[in-house]
Amino acid sequence: HAIETSLGLSHGHSVALGMRSVMAIGRSLKITSLQSSKRLDSLLLKFDLPLTLDSIKDIDVDKIALDKKGLNNRLTLVFPVEIGKVVVETNLDRDVVSVGLKQLLTGTLIP
Question: pLDDT by residue (tens digit) across 41-90?
């Protein structure tokens, strides 16, 4: 919701970008498989949904932290491990959000 309200994008486009961002964070934490990330990108392209943003400067990271059950600057996020399997990570530093947002600028997958 933070991406949607900050950038004025449609709900569907915002959800797609949020999913891609969470996948990038999951990759950086060694939780999400590269195969799952590639599969998501393939599906987003198939349905003509965005993979990248031109700028993230207008995205309010504080809103994202609040939106994702933030408490004391710590976050709870759900990460896909592989298709059909997820893991809930609690007590994450809010700085992990920047990893996901940077992914939306480059469009490249984290190896």
Answer: 999 999 999 988 876 666 666 666 566 566 666 788 899 998 889 999 98
Say how far apart CA 77 and CA 46 lie, in whole Å: 26
State the Cα–Cα distance between residues 56 and 104, nearest whole angstrom: 8
For residue 20, which amino acid is it? Answer: R
Full DSSP string of 44-95? HHHTT--S--S--TT--HHHHHHHTT-BTTEEEEEEEEETTEEEEEEEEETT
Q: How far is CA 49 from CA 7, 40, 53, 88, 94, in A?
A: 15, 11, 11, 26, 26
